Amino acid sequence: MNTIDEAVMKYFDDCKKGCSNLIASKDLYEAIQKKEKLFMLDIRRPEDFAKNQINGSINIYWSEVGEFIDVLPMDEKIIVICYTGQTSGQVVSLLKVLGYDAYSLSGGMINGWMKGSLPVQAGCST
């Protein structure tokens, strides 16, 4: 079996063992407050990122993430943020197969972070 096959099998084995690859908004907020080592990757459109973002996150549009794979940190927990959690789940799956410690923000910005009335930063670009 080649390395990719093994990584895919490990991903599905982890899923069977209960690893959901999700992080709840309140848990992310607590991790931020504790200053845990996190890399928050917001994959929404740049214009939406500029309107509201989680403080400390960086923006790379979802279809461009592949161009930046080599600069993503292997030694940090990566939290992927999108609108509702759907697209970030896809990106997380690929990152996990590549060996990253990645998680999707459950519910994304709309049904997770914003619904929980958690703080956002506005007016910044990528």
Automatic annotation (TrEMBL):
This is Rhodanese-related sulfurtransferase. It comes from Marinisporobacter balticus. Keywords: Transferase. SMART domains: RHOD. InterPro entries: GlpE_sulfurtransferase, Rhodanese-like_dom, Rhodanese-like_dom_sf. GO terms for molecular function: transferase activity. The lineage of its organism: Bacteria, Bacillati, Bacillota, Clostridia, Peptostreptococcales. Residues 34-122 form the Rhodanese domain. The keyword Oxidoreductase does not apply.
